[in-house]
Amino acid sequence: MADTAYVCVTCGTEFAPSPAPPGECPICLDERQYVGHGGQAWTTIDELAADHANRVEEVEPGLTGIGIEPSFAIGQRALLTGGLLWDCVTLIDDATEEAVRAAGGLETIAISHPHYYSGMVAWAERFGARVLLHEDDRDWIMRPSPRIELWAGERLSLSPDLELVRLGGHFAGGTVCLWRAGAEGRGALLSGDIVQVVADRDWVSFMWSYPNLIPLPAREVQRIRRVVQDLTFDRVYGAWWHTIVASDAHAKVIRSADRYVAALEA
Questions:
Q1: What is the pLDDT at residue 1?
Q2: Whole-number Å distance between alpha carbons of 227 and 230
Q3: Cα–Cα distance between 214 and 18 in angstroms, integer?
Q4: Which helix (H) or strand (E) is 235 found in, with range?
Q5: What residue spans define the domains of the chain?
Q6: Which of 78, 84, 132, 197 is in Cβ range 3.0-4.6 Å of 243 for a Cys bridge?
Q7: pTM of the model
Q8: How far lies 218's CA from each of 33, 85, 149, 204, 207, in Å?
Q9: What gap in Å lies between CA 265 and CA 218, rounded to an integer?
């Protein structure tokens, strides 16, 4: 019997093929995530496809969202623009492939941090794409592949419109993507949850662990603020369909960082 690529039910990460499910998920055992209340559980992409499908729809002109419904694992949605899939979801099937190709296809997958590695290798193999991950997060790759390329440093230009920027924080290699053509040319920041859009969408936040509510130290948020200060954007797209700072986002991220630091230092 052929080995199976098992998927962690709690975080949605696909593991390297094996004859039996892994004993544990290192991503979920880390303090930034958690093991589900029912204990470690596994599925596969084929099993997931039996009762889930991907919602694929335009978010703004030139930007397409892709998310699993009903929600699975962490529940993030990916974003597609200019041949780049930003972040990833676990499920890939024929219907999703057709929709992605109709939206212009993809050549590159870039991911903000390990919680969204999900089905990146399965997606890369389906489209013949490369996967760009920051080298600082290499230890979290659960399914190695020659399609994965590690990049180093603070910024990586993909095209005149797209640039990866390492912010760190939530993970050492935590990355955001600057989409200069977004927001009608005013620029958009695709942030995953490295810059987390919160319930009051005029604000964002920054955390070491979101589910376990462990904050980042003030000095780290100040460093992130300095990097963001030099970026130009008017909109932020977070990790879920509803997490969008629609306008004046640069100023809102800066004031959010200042509020965060003030609260820690009070």
A1: 62
A2: 6
A3: 34
A4: strand 235-238
A5: 7-265
A6: 197
A7: 0.97
A8: 21, 32, 32, 15, 11
A9: 8
Q: What's the confidence (pLDDT) of residue 229?
A: 98
Cβ–Cβ < 8 Å for 27, 143: no
Percent of the chain past pLDDT 90, that is, above it, reads: 99
Fold annotation for 7-265 = Metallo-beta-lactamase; Chain A (3.60.15)
What are the phi and psi torsion angles at 163 (to 5°)?
A: -145, 135
CA–CA dist 165, 156 (Å, integer): 7
Which residue matches tokens 């870039």?
A: 110
Q: Is the dihedral of CA 95, 96, 101, 103 positive or negative?
A: positive
Do you find a cis peptide bond into 70, omega within 30 degrees of 0? yes
Per-residue pLDDT reduced to its tens digit, 188-247? 999 999 999 999 999 999 999 999 999 999 999 999 999 999 999 999 999 999 999 999
Token pair for residue 189? 């920041």
Q: In sequence order, which residues have a C-beta less than 8 Å from that of residue 263 and are 6 or more positions away?
A: none
